[in-house]
Amino acid sequence: MEEFRLLATCASGIEALVGRELRDLGYQTQVENGRVRFNGTIKDILRTNLWLRTADRVKIIVGEFNAYSFDELFEKTLALPWDQLLPMDAEFPVEGKSRNSKLHSVPDVQSIVKKAIVNQLASTYHRNGHLPETGALFPLEVAINKDKVLLTLDTTGSSLFKRGYRLEKGGAPLKENMAAALVMLAKWYPDNPFVDPVCGSGTIPIEAALLARNIAPGFNRAFACEKWDWVPKGLSQELRDEADSQADYDMDLDISGYDIDGKMIDIAKLNAQEAGVLHDIQFKQLAVKDFTTEKINGVIIANPPYGERLSDRDTVRILYRQMGQVYAKLPSWSKYILTSDLEFEDYFGKKATKRRKLYNGALRTDYFQYWGKRIRPARTEN
Q: Molecular function terms in GO for this entry (predicted)?
C-alpha cells in the first residue's frame, strides 16, 4: 500500500495527547501547534480515524511549498499528483485560510487552487476543463502561514468529535473529543470511582466508559474516505471487527453522573444508551452541595457553567464555593475542574496543584487540577 504523509489535527493545548495516542497505536510522530504529523497507508488512515479520541481530523498532506504570488501558487499546485487521489467525478470543495502571508485574500487563494486542480484533472481525464463533481466527496484545504502553503485532503468528513451517540444536548455542550481529553489528563484508572457532578448531557462519563472499555470512539460513525473508490473494499469492516474484538466488556466500572436538572439526566441516559454504555454509568439527579461518599481514591471531573454572562457569574461562583466545601471532605479524591473563570481558585477556596490551559472551542479555559492523597485500601481477611 502507498504510504502518505498525514496530519491529525486537534484543539490547541491537547497536541501532546494526540501524539501520545498515535504513539500508543505504533506511529512515530512530530507534534506541532494544533496538529501531529505521522506517516501511514490507507489502512492506517482508517485505523486512526477509528481510534483517535482527542483529534479532530486525519488529513493527507498533498503538498507543501512556499508561494509569494498567485502564479507561483497555481503552478506549484498544478504540479501535484491530484489524479492519484481524485477520480474524474470527485466532488472537491476547497476551503482556505491565510495568516501573515503575501497571498492574504482567501477567496482568491481558493479560486487559484481550485483552477489548478481542475486543469490538472481535466488534462489527465481529457475533459476540456469541465468536471462533473457528482461522485464521492474529497474535502480539500489550502492553508497559508507565513507564505508557506499546506494543501491537505480530509479523510474524516464530519469532525471526529461527532461520535454518533449524542441524540440530544443541553446548553453549551462539551465536545466529545475534549471530554475524552479531560479524562485522559486526569490519569483515571478504571478500577477507581469516577464522578461527574455536573454531567449535563453525559458526555464526560460516556467518554470515560468508552475509554475504560477500550471501545473505539469512531466505531458507530462513517468517514469520508470510506466512500473513495481507491480504498480497498472490506478494509474498513476488517478494522471495525478487529476493534470490536479488542473491547473489554467484562470489567466492573464505578462511574456516576449527577446533575441538578432532571431533564439533563434523562438526556444523558439516552446518549449513554446510544453509546452502548448506559449499564456502566449511574445517572442521578443531585445538586453538587448534596454529594457525599464513603468511597476512596476516586476522580471527579467537572465542566461547570463558566459564568461568561455577568448575570450568571454570581450563581456560578456560589457553585464553585460549594464544590470547594464538599470536595474538601474527600482528601483521597483527585478533582479536575474546567472553567474560563480565572478567579475560580478564590471561590473554590484552594490553589490548584496544577493548571493547564485548554481551548474549549474558541474559548480559552483552564483545567484546575487538585491531586488527591491516595489511601491504601484496607485489606480484607479471607
A: methyltransferase activity
pLDDT digits (tens, 9 = 90+) for 135-171: 999 999 999 999 999 999 999 999 999 999 999 887 7
Distance CA(327)–CA(288), nearest Å, equals 10
How far apart (Å, rounded) are the C-alpha atoms in residues 4 and 17? 22
Indicate if the pLDDT at residue 56 is higher than 80: yes
Look at residue 380 in the predicted model and tell me its pLDDT: 59
pLDDT tens per residue, range 80-116: 999 999 999 999 999 999 999 999 999 999 999 999 9
What whole-number distance in Å separates Cα of residue 207 and Cα of residue 119? 45
Whole-number Cα distances in Å, 58 to 111, 157, 158: 24, 9, 11
Which of 133-151 are b and which e, b meaning 16 or more Cβ less than 10 Å from the residue's Cβ?
A: eebbebbbbbbbeeeebbb
Q: Which three cell numbers stand for residue 105?
A: 485574500
Strands 140-145 and 94-99: parallel
User: Of 273, 7, 289, 328, which is closest to residue 156 (Cα–Cα)?
Assistant: 7
Distance CA(179)–CA(194), nearest Å, equals 14
Q: Is pLDDT above 70 for 310?
A: no
- Sheet containing strand 140-145, edge to edge, reads 30-32, 35-40, 4-9, 57-66, 148-154, 140-145, 94-99
- All three cell numbers of 286, joined, read 443531585
Q: Which residue has the higher pLDDT, 129 or 377?
A: 377
* Nearest CA-CA partner of 137 in 222, 36, 34: 222
- The amino acid that residue 289 corresponds to is K
Specify the pLDDT at position 107.
98
